[in-house]
């Protein structure tokens, strides 16, 4: 997830910024109503265990925070400890692998700090995990993540490397150079660390404490341009690993998510949040029946002040949104539960990673129509998939 409106979080929490997307910031900051919370009465139906909300700050690491949070919920569900795993360790491992792929592809690969749910699982399988207390990644003089300088430095180095100045052949030292930059900004990865009086490596900690099998996690997409019930590439720039996922019909998105939540599993969710009907500050996202461009000023001002009718979503609308860039791969979050509003309509409860300074202390309520329309991908434990779908997939 590119998390292109991360600037909103930077603006709201006064982190400072090296970003220049002022117009986008202004657009997103205005996605709120003055009395939104008073207009909703939510009753929780199902709510999975989750660790406290964190703040990714000035970094495009939503994918790592949300999927690590998903794994933390998996640990709790299995009777393990309720601790934060280091999202920056996962991200750092991914950045090194992405750098290798970028050079292999002669620069024809997306380079930024974005990623996907599967990146965390893949790095966990290869490199294990570290408690966040043992690897914060804050080695460059700030108290919160601040990645733009690091990512710019790495990109400049990689672009110089692929020019192959040594008679057309890469040197043997470029990986060490990239690793040195990561060390300088994020700190060296500890070879061993202590947890509850015992010494672990990242690999042994994953095996003996986290105890999650990476093969248990399944990622889904929904697109009409490739066959359903088969794997297909996730066609978004931040899928730098070019991984293929199970392509399912749109009406199975909520079916799988509902089943997972009702059986005490949570969901790692990738989505588009650049729409004017997504309000971080009010903690509400839905698809209004009236297009925002056609709303009166009064309708626009009251967009988030209580439940509103929604547009009917079709698979064709989903595909059109992805094809014409209305739907972009912006952000990763964790779906943790289901709630009903005062009209009996069900909403998903979603944990974000922008701190707790919104109407619902870091959470949002998102309609199923929004999820059907704007989901780019999602991941669940294979045991949180309905049996008939598992049989179709051969899982």
Describe this structure in words.
This protein is an alpha+beta fold and 395 residues long. It has one domain (6-393): Cathepsin B, Chain A, CATH 3.90.70. It is 35% helix and 15% strand. The chain has 13 helices and 13 strands. The chain has helices at residues 6-13, 22-29, 62-77, 87-104, 117-127, 148-161, 174-186, 202-210, 251-262, 297-301, 315-323, 368-374, 387-393; strands at 43-47, 193-195, 198-200, 217-221, 230-233, 244-247, 267-271, 278-279, 284-285, 331-340, 346-351, 363-367, 375-381. The strands form two sheets. Strands 1, 4, 5, 6, 7, 8, 9, 10, 11, 12 and 13 form an eleven-stranded mixed β-sheet that branches. Strands 2-3 form a two-stranded antiparallel sheet. Strand 10 (331-340) and strand 11 form a beta hairpin. Helix 3 (62-77) packs across helix 4 (87-104), helix 3 crosses helix 5 and helix 6 runs antiparallel to helix 7. The longest helix is centred in the first third of the chain and has 18 residues, at 87-104. The radius of gyration is 21 Å and the shape is globular. The chain starts with 5 loop residues before the first helix and ends with a helix. Mean pLDDT is 92; it is low at 4-27.
What's the layout of helices and strands?
Layout: H1 6-13, H2 22-29, E1 43-47, H3 62-77, H4 87-104, H5 117-127, H6 148-161, H7 174-186, E2 193-195, E3 198-200, H8 202-210, E4 217-221, E5 230-233, E6 244-247, H9 251-262, E7 267-271, E8 278-279, E9 284-285, H10 297-301, H11 315-323, E10 331-340, E11 346-351, E12 363-367, H12 368-374, E13 375-381, H13 387-393
Parallel strand pairs: 4-6, 9-12
Antiparallel strand pairs: 1-10, 2-3, 4-13, 5-6, 7-10, 7-13, 8-9, 10-11, 11-12
Helix pairs in contact: 1-2, 3-4, 3-5, 4-5, 4-7, 6-7
């Amino acid at each position: 997830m590119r998390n292109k409106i991360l600037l909103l979080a930077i603006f709201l929490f006064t982190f400072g910024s090296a970003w220049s997307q002022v117009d986008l910031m202004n657009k997103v900051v205005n996605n709120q109503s003055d009395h939104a919370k008073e207009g909703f009465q939510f009753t929780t139906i199902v709510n999975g265990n989750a660790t406290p909300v964190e703040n990714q700050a000035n970094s495009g690491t939503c994918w790592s925070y949300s999927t690590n949070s998903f794994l933390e919920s998996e640990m709790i569900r299995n009777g393990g400890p309720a601790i934060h795993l280091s999202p920056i360790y996962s991200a750092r491992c991914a950045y090194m692998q992405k750098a290798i792929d970028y050079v292999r592809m002669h620069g024809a690969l997306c380079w930024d700090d974005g990623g996907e749910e599967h990146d965390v699982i893949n790095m966990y399988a290869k490199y294990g995990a570290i408690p966040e207390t043992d690897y914060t990644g804050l080695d460059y003089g700030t108290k919160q993540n601040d990645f733009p300088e690091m990512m710019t430095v790495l990109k400049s180095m990689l672009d110089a490397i692929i020019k192959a100045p040594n008679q057309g052949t890469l040197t043997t030292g470029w990986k060490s150079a990239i690793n040195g930059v990561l060390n300088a900004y994020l700190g060296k990865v500890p070879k061993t660390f202590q947890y509850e009086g015992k010494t672990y490596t990242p690999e042994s900690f994953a095996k003996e404490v986290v105890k999650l099998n990476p093969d248990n996690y399944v990622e889904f997409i929904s697109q009409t341009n490739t066959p359903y019930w088969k794997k297909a590439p996730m066609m978004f720039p931040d899928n730098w690993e070019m991984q293929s996922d199970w392509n399912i019909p749109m009406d199975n998105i909520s079916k799988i998510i509902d089943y997972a939540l009702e059986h005490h599993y949570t969901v790692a969710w990738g989505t588009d949040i650049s729409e004017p009907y997504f309000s971080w500050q009010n903690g509400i996202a839905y698809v209004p029946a009236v297009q925002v461009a056609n709303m009166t000023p009064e309708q626009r001002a009251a967009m988030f002040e209580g439940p509103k009718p929604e547009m009917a979503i079709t698979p064709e609308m989903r595909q059109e949104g992805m094809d014409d860039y209305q739907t972009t791969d912006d952000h990763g979050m964790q779906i943790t539960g289901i709630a009903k509003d005062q009209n009996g309509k069900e909403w998903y409860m979603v944990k974000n990673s922008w701190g707790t300074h919104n109407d619902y202390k870091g959470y949002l309520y998102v309609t199923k129509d929004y999820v059907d329309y704007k989901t780019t991908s999602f991941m669940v434990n294979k045991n949180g998939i309905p049996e008939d779908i598992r049989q179709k997939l051969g899982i």
